[in-house]
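Quick one from the shared queue. A colleague (R.T.) flagged Carbon-nitrogen family hydrolase as missing a structural entry in our internal table.

Convert sequence to structure tokens.
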Amino acid sequence: MKISSYQMDIIPGNPKKNREKVKEWVDNICKEESPDVIVLPEMWTTGYTLPELKEIADRDGEPTTRFLQNLARENEINIIGGSFANIKDDEVYNSAIAINRKGEILYRYDKVHLVPMLDEHLYLKAGTHNHIFEIEGIKAGLIICYDLRFPELSRQLAVDGAEILFIVAEWPEARKYHWKHLQIARAIENQVFVVSTNCVGQYNGVQYCGNSMMIDPLGEIISCGNEENEETITKELDLHSVPVIREKVPVFKSRVPSVYKIN
Ligand SMILES: O=C(O)CCC(=O)C(=O)O
């Protein structure tokens, strides 16, 4: 599976310009690299302009969903569409989406863990569900940024069969060490490929740290983006290695859930 990740410098508060930017990137990358899957970062239509979201967010997923569906169909490409601010029943959610080559929606997810350090709970409503989906016949999970800190969420996806974990983010420079090492931990403990897409640039005094990564199920970094600039990371992943690795070190067979007391 050839995957291209867009480590984007998001234009704050300007969904139209960001959609134009993404269209240009997708059209070019599809011509140059013909990936099977492309991945966008968290909140890529608006950036983290939390106080403005009620005015500029999508409504019931539109127009961003249709925009991504058209891009998927035109380029015959699967899209992990990052996430975008999305108003449903007058509440703003941080909504992620996955779309196949025919433009069909494979999965929708609203970020479950809101970030106290950003007062997200004042602006956003949390989602309540997360589950696996299939992309090109591969079982996958999709989480958003702060979700990475909760091993239970990724573990549940792996126990349910995920072999690849997509992480879309706007992770700050201030906690870059956590960003890199938690991803490696999630890959090793769950024996999954991790594909993450972070943004770069800064907004409102927060510097984002790039370092979008592709990591194999042994925790080896296959590819890592730079820290400051827009970049496309493209790699071919051999997903057949997952069952082989899980057979050699049979973590899932060795689990003893009856001993674990956390809910
Ligand atoms: O957990 C962190 O340190 C960063 C999380 C974050 O910025 C986010 O979820 O948007």
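Residues 2-259 form a domain with the Nitrilase/N-carbamoyl-D-aminoacid amidohydrolase fold (CATH 3.60.110.10).
The chain has a mean pLDDT of 97.
Added to the table.
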